Amino acid sequence: MDEKEKIGIIGAGPAGIIAAGIAGSRGKDVTLIEKNERIGKKLFITGKGRCNITNNSPIEDFFDNVMKNKNFLYSSFYSFSNIDILDLFHSYGLKTKVERGNRVFPESDKSSDVIKTLQKFLNSNNVNLILNTNITSIYYDDSKFVVIANEDKMVFDKLIIATGGASYPGTGSTGDGYKLSKRLGHNITELKPSLVPIEVNEDWVKDLQGLSLKNVNISAYTKNKPLYNEFGEMVFTHYGISGPIVLSMSNYLHNYTNGKINLQIDLKPALDEKTLDERILRDFQIYNNKYIRNALDDLLPQRLIPIIIFSSDIDPEKTVNQVTKEERIRLLNNIKGLTFTFKSFRPIEEAIITSGGVSTKEINPSTMESKLIEGLYFAGEVIDVDALTGGYNLQIAYSTGYLAGMNV
């Protein structure tokens, strides 16, 4: 063996970068291989281009936001926590801020500043970075890992697979790691889109495309069984709904898609029915002689008004003073519970992350080393773990990357 162990890391996303820098800091001869022309390509678009670095909640709260195999992450989270990653970023000069929901962002609101900081981290730890290099095959031979890339052959003593998932393929996350891991004998659990927009059956959503709603409550239920309930922000699309509370909801619906799922939006969650009725009556007094379609502007976004009136089975040409009590109650019920039905998830390519991956049963949770092949490690989204929005998935990447880098 050479004086320094040769460590190969496939994938220069957050997991691979942290693994590479940490391994480099331990004096290892580290080569980080990336198929794109730059590091952190998916990181660049996270948080709408602002990069939600992590979450500032106590680390024990992170487990409540992990949807799959949370116990597997115990060593990872406590070995390298949200405080640790922020200390690392701060030590390289990145300034951060905490926003709603304890989400942490760079002070500049630029994900590019996060990536520049990670590049400094790699440089300071003497990581050999190889870009524009697509791995086509890996095999394990005589206790060495032979990596075939662009018809070139590289040989490593140890190998970390940190290739990400199968979502946002334009960023390089095309599921390569699953294929490579499978060839090395690992089981890949079923891949599903996670944190993904939702398609609905109702055609009228097309008329609302681009309409963003803040401070609403969305709920999902099947056969009167509640599945999900959350307050926050969402947006209508040409096919259905998206936005933070919808993306989180998608994680809760995976196991129920065989039955009919009803979705409901409370447009005025701060008002109970009695208070809302009083508010509607006040508006009706003000706009007593107007058509009902012109009398709800103070209460609802303009584009929603025709939908609410239609759903309430009220003639839009009726004047307010002609609206019956029964019609007013139907109007109130639709404002408190605009209902539509789940059709499907959008494709995995549009998901923020991939649910599923290399089975956690085949990885040592304390080291991220394969239980099947000595010297093979995994980090990040390629593993069968995923979490809700809010910086938790990136923290999984850093924490598992750290363990792999420390133990490789």
In short:
This is NAD(P)/FAD-dependent oxidoreductase. This protein is of the alpha+beta class.
Describe the protein.
- The chain has 408 residues and is an alpha+beta fold.
- It has two domains: 6-193 and 353-407, FAD/NAD(P)-binding domain (3-Layer(bba) Sandwich), CATH 3.50.50.60; 197-345, Helicase, Ruva Protein, domain 3 (Orthogonal Bundle), CATH 1.10.8.50.
- The protein is 29% helix and 25% strand.
- It has helices at 14-25, 41-45, 59-62, 74-79, 82-91, 111-124, 176-183, 244-253, 273-286, 305-311, 325-336, 392-407; strands at residues 6-10, 29-33, 54-55, 66-68, 96-99, 103-106, 128-130, 135-141, 144-149, 152-156, 158-161, 192-194, 198-200, 212-222, 225-236, 240-242, 262-266, 338-345, 353-355, 376-378, 386-387.
- It has a six-stranded antiparallel barrel.
- Strand 15 (225-236) and strand 16 form a beta hairpin.
- Helix 1 packs parallel to helix 6 (111-124), helix 1 (14-25) packs parallel to helix 12 (392-407) and helix 9 crosses helix 11 (325-336).
- It starts with 5 loop residues before the first strand and ends with a helix.
- The mean pLDDT is 93.
- Residues 7-406 form the RsdA/BaiN/AoA(So)-like Rossmann fold-like domain.
- Residues 192-353 form the RsdA/BaiN/AoA(So)-like insert domain.
